[in-house]
């Protein structure tokens, strides 16, 4: 996706400048970009290098995953005070009987209190209570479950091609919508046609196949 962003940006720029350029993309830099927020928090002296000691890495009791009564999991991300207050309300907890939300020293204790509460009900029971609210809540779904979630089905986020469930093309375009035209070809099925389209002769392709430099499925 980082490469795609670079290519599309360069194409748009080339239309304005009539000049091309090399797009240099590295996976490590894409990963670093995803961590931009963490670098900002570190620069503001609000991020420690200790694991599960921060708001977004499992340290905060109001931002993380919890096991439910049936052995499944739910996630919450109630950072803002109004969302946190609603989380406590739905959990049946009294804010006056708990440490302050930002009291980092009490986070381990609060996390255990939350964990005990979440284990009192199944994942589906918590969904019935919390989904659709401003808690910033979601069930943790398996791959097989994700395609069946009401939100995914309403948006058409998944498609089935030859019995294989897979993500639908995204992002969605109003004027030029994309679709999956069919299953992928068998490995090697388009080797010869692709190479001849690039200018290789059939004799050259035959030689490459004989040398086991390429594979071909007929």
Q: Can you give a write-up of this model?
A:
The protein is mainly alpha-helical. Among the domains are: 2-34, no CATH class; 63-140, formyl-coa transferase, domain 3, CATH 3.30.1540.10. Helices cover 41% and strands 10% of the residues. The chain has ten helices and five strands; from the N terminus they run αααββαααβααββαα. The chain has helices at 2-17, 27-34, 36-43, 81-91, 107-118, 123-130, 143-146, 150-155, 191-197, 202-210; strands at residues 63-67, 73-77, 137-139, 158-161, 164-167. The strands form two sheets. Strands 1-2-3 form a three-stranded antiparallel β-sheet, with helices on one face. Strands 4-5 form a two-stranded antiparallel ribbon. β1 (63-67) and β2 (73-77) form a beta hairpin. The longest helix has 16 residues, at 2-17.
In short:
This protein is mainly alpha-helical and 218 residues long. It contains 10 helices and 5 strands, in the order αααββαααβααββαα. Helices cover 41% and strands 10% of the residues.
Mean pLDDT value: 95
Strand content: 5-15%
- Helicity level, as a percent range? 40-55%
The CATH topology of the domain at 63-140 is: formyl-coa transferase, domain 3
Sequence of secondary-structure elements: HHHEEHHHEHHEEHH
Q: Mind telling me the CATH superfamily name of the domain at 63-140?
A: formyl-coa transferase, domain 3
Main beta sheet strand tally, sense and closure: 3 strands, antiparallel
**pLDDT below 50 for ≥5 consecutive residues: which ranges?**
none
Question: How many helices does DSSP assign?
Answer: 10
CATH class of the domain at 63-140: Alpha Beta
Shape: elongated
Structural class: mainly alpha
Radius of gyration: 25 Å
Number of strands: 5
Q: How far apart lie the N and C ends?
A: 33 Å
Corresponding CATH architecture of the domain at 63-140: 2-Layer Sandwich
For the largest sheet, list the strands in their spatial order.
1-2-3
């Amino acid at each position: 996706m980082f490469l795609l962003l670079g290519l599309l940006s360069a194409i748009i720029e080339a239309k304005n400048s009539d000049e091309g350029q090399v797009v240099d993309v590295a996976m490590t830099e894409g990963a670093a970009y995803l961590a931009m927020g963490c670098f900002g928090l570190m620069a503001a002296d609000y991020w420690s290098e200790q694991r599960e000691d921060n708001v977004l890495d499992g340290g905060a009791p109001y931002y993380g995953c919890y096991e439910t009564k049936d052995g499944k999991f739910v996630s919450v991300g109630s950072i803002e005070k109004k969302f946190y207050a609603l989380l406590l309300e739905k959990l049946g907890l009294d804010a006056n009987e708990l440490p302050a939300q930002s009291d980092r020293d009490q986070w381990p204790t609060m996390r255990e209190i939350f964990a005990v509460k979440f284990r009192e009900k199944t994942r589906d029971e918590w969904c019935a209570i919390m989904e659709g609210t401003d808690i910033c809540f979601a069930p943790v779904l398996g791959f097989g479950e994700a395609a069946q979630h009401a939100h995914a089905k309403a948006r058409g986020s998944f498609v089935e091609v030859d019995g294989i469930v897979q993500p639908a093309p995204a992002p969605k375009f109003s004027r030029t919508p994309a679709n999956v035209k069919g299953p992928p070809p068998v490995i090697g099925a388009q080797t010869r046609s692709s190479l001849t389209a690039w200018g290789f002769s059939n004799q050259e392709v035959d030689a490459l196949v004989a040398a086991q430099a390429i594979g071909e499925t007929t």
